[in-house]
Amino acid sequence: QVQLVESGGGSVQAGGSLRLSCVASESTDFMGWFREAPGKERKGVAGIDSDGSTNYADSVKGRFTISKDNAMNTLFLEMNSLKPEDTALYYCAARRRALDVRTLGLWLSLGDRARATSYWGQGTQVTVSS
After folding, report:
1. In Å, how far are 15, 66, 122 from 10, measured between CA atoms?
2. In the predicted model, is pLDDT for residue 123 greater than 90?
3. Cα dihedral value 71, 75, 113, 100, nearest 10
4. Percentage of the chain surpassing pLDDT 70?
5. Residues 50-91 pLDDT 10s
6. Gyration radius (Cα) of the chain, Å
7. CB-based burial of residue 61 (10 Å sphere; 0-12 exposed, 13-18 middle, 19+ buried)?
8. Measuring CA to CA, which residue among 18, 39, 44 is closest to residue 8?
């Protein structure tokens, strides 16, 4: 069982920045961030593979940057130029590579369907006001 603990959420105005952190109890092949806006399904935002390759949702490309400190098993999400539509509960997630989910992009694209087969943090709220 992988334990994930997020921190760093908060409220900012549009155009502002926030940095999310997630400490993992152990490393896994995939680590990433998903978000869930009110009334909407959970969606993949950004992910990082054990080889350092990254993948982003189109809606955050160029604004968000995912990184990982392997020595500390800590995942980060740097969020810049935030928009009101980025408002959501952000979840840190992790899973091991498997035959049915072999790529980072596939895992992120699962969105809500990744719930049962991934490890999750408790979520941290990000609110962006216009």
Report:
1. 14, 18, 15
2. yes
3. -30
4. 100
5. 999 999 999 999 999 999 999 999 999 999 999 999 999 999
6. 13
7. exposed
8. 18
